[in-house]
């Protein structure tokens, strides 16, 4: 029996609702398994912690979670604290501290979901967006001078390093190679951003030579938004810089039906540090504390967490339970046009998992 050590960090807003729901799903899974268990440790970092201590997480916080097998995260974002403080003080501190340089965002239209693209068949939209997660436009380099004066100036400098681009390209090509279509689209903007993005393109060509069986093409980021809508079936694996992929993946999530469904993994592919899994949505101030949050994005993140641990059978079982639940429109939350609550959706997924217990011999 393996015991996986999981850090749960609900953070703010609906993170406090969906992370406990994700933990319940993992507990239901473990109850039905003879081969693995989970040991959870919860960390109360976020906006409330900031109000008490003046920081989003303690200075030595990373040390408290360094030894975990994975992290399940909710959201950082509080109505009364500026967003750059909550984001940089918690989520980015973990992503950058643990060099989780690959942000992976699968997108599919799940059964029962009424997606907005009427000409798109569910099987036409099956993407994984790989977001460079450690540098680029969000490197944090920049500053402000002459604050408050008419000559005030400010910069956010985008930094791409050869090592950083090579490792994300290699990760994306490898991921594309592992998927049935072996198809990669490299998103660029080297027409307007004529230094770093030109290097990005050059490195894509270099790394592609290591993967002769992967078909790949290049698309400008603005054109790619139209392609996602007009020709979704021509895309499979997509790699883009931090900012470009941030925007494209919210579009992808919307095209798949709701921001409330979409998952992500902040991965350290070298496994030097724990990886962190989270729904892509934020704190959702408009619905927080009401029990209306869709927990599916968190459950799908739990699937990615299980895959990362190598528990592929368990991951498949959770995904099947989630798809059975989305297929039933009476279990849709308000973002999907339904009336179900977070608790009802969670209970339905847990009930399916407890029913579908597998013998230990079947486990990974
Ligand atoms: P948001 O994702 O919180 O909300 C956007 C809209 O989608 C809202 O109408 C919300 O109700 C809805 N929505 C989102 N998730 C939902 C769910 N699970 N179920 C049902 N409806 C859902 O984005 P925002 O409004 O831009 O940001 C709010 C706060 O969250 C900000 O402070 C922002 O910085 C933060 N944020 C954090 C993260 C993160 O920690 N990863 C990501 C995005 C936003
Ligand atoms: Mn985003």
From TrEMBL:
Coiled coil feature spans: none
UniProt keywords, alphabetically: Manganese, Metal-binding, NAD, Oxidoreductase
Family: Belongs to the isocitrate and isopropylmalate dehydrogenases family.
Protein name: D-malate dehydrogenase (decarboxylating)
Entry-linked SUPFAM superfamilies: Isocitrate/Isopropylmalate dehydrogenase-like
Keyword Metal-binding: yes
Organism in which the protein naturally occurs: Paraburkholderia ultramafica
Superkingdom: Bacteria
EC annotation from Swiss-Prot or TrEMBL: 1.1.1.83
SMART domains: Iso_dh
Transmembrane spans: none
NCBIfam families: TTC
Keyword set includes Magnesium: no
InterPro entries: ICDH/IPMDH, IsoCit/isopropylmalate_DH_CS, IsoPropMal-DH-like_dom, TTC_DH
PANTHER family: D-MALATE DEHYDROGENASE [DECARBOXYLATING] (PTHR43275)
Isopropylmalate dehydrogenase-like domain segment(s): 5-349
Cofactors that this protein relies on: Mg(2+); Mn(2+)
């Amino acid at each position: 029996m393996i015991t996986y050590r999981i850090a749960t960090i609900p953070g703010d807003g609906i993170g406090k609702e969906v992370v406990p729901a994700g933990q319940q799903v993992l507990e239901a899974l473990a109850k039905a398994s003879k081969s693995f268990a989970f040991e959870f440790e919860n960390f109360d970092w976020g906006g409330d912690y900031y109000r008490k201590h003046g920081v989003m997480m303690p200075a030595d916080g990373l040390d408290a979670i360094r030894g975990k097998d994975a992290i399940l995260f909710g959201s950082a974002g509080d109505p009364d604290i500026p967003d750059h403080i909550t984001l940089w003080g918690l989520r980015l501190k973990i992503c950058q501290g643990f060099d989780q340089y690959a942000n992976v965002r699968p997108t599919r239209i799940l059964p029962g979901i009424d997606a907005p693209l009427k000409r798109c068949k569910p099987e036409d939209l099956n993407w994984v967006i790989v977001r460079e997660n450690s540098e680029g436009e969000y490197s944090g380099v920049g500053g402000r001078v002459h604050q408050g004066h008419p000559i005030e100036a400010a910069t956010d400098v985008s930094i791409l390093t050869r090592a950083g681009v090579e490792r994300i390209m290699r990760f994306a090509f490898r991921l594309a190679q592992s998927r049935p279509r072996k198809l990669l689209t490299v998103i660029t903007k080297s027409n307007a951003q004529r230094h770093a993005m030109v290097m990005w393109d050059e490195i894509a060509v270099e790394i592609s030579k290591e993967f002769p069986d992967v078909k790949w093409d290049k698309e400008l980021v603005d054109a790619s938004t139209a392609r996602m809508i007009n020709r979704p079936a021509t895309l499979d694996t997509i790699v883009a810089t931090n900012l470009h992929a941030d925007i494209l993946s919210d579009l992808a999530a919307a095209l798949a039906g709701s921001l409330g469904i979409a998952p992500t993994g902040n991965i350290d592919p070298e496994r030097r540090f724990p990886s962190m899994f989270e729904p892509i949505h934020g704190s959702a101030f408009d619905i927080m504390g009401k029990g209306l949050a869709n927990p599916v994005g968190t459950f799908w993140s739990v699937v990615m967490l299980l895959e990362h641990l190598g528990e592929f059978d368990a991951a498949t079982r959770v995904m099947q339970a989630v798809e059975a639940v989305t297929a039933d429109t009476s279990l849709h939350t308000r973002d999907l046009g339904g009336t179900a609550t977070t608790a009802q959706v969670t209970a339905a997924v847990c009930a399916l998992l407890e029913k579908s217990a597998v013998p230990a011999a079947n486990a990974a």
